[in-house]
Write a structure and sequence with these properties.
mainly beta; about 180 residues; 11-stranded antiparallel beta sheet
Amino acid sequence: MSRQCIPWLYLRGDANGETQVDKTSVDARGEYSVSDRTFVFAEVSYLRDPFKGVDYFVAPLAGGGYRIIRSDTRNLTVDAALGAELESNSGFGRSSGGAAKAGENFDWTLSPTSKFTQKLTAIWKTNDFGDAFYHFDAGLTTTVAARLELKLAYVYDYKTRPPSINIKKGDSAIFAALLVRF
């Protein structure tokens, strides 16, 4: 059994004519089940966040995972991967090297029309494990129509070494979004 997903997030906010947030995040992933509990995957993660000084961060990775809990209502998976990272920071140039990733995903179907989801990931640069991106999100999704869902979510991103001491290491967002399922 195989599965593909491409979750993406674009946040933009303005107040009094001034941009407060402008961030893009995309994870394209293909998974193949090896057994009932194990799987292998390949993915590409992308991040653009001008407020963090990140022109782009791209990490193509391949790895495997294990389904700790697998049921009709609850699922808990962990995964790990190795690959590469390419990053460009405003005023500091480009860098590239190896990357290692660890992740955890949990979902709980609360009813036939609503679900709680939670995800935690970390991507480390292998030439300096002190330089990493951490991502956490949690949300509640409910079905609005056959292919349309409403999601309320909280997202927190943390970069251990931003390109400048004037840039905050972490930032968070609370938002509501309409999701279209294909």
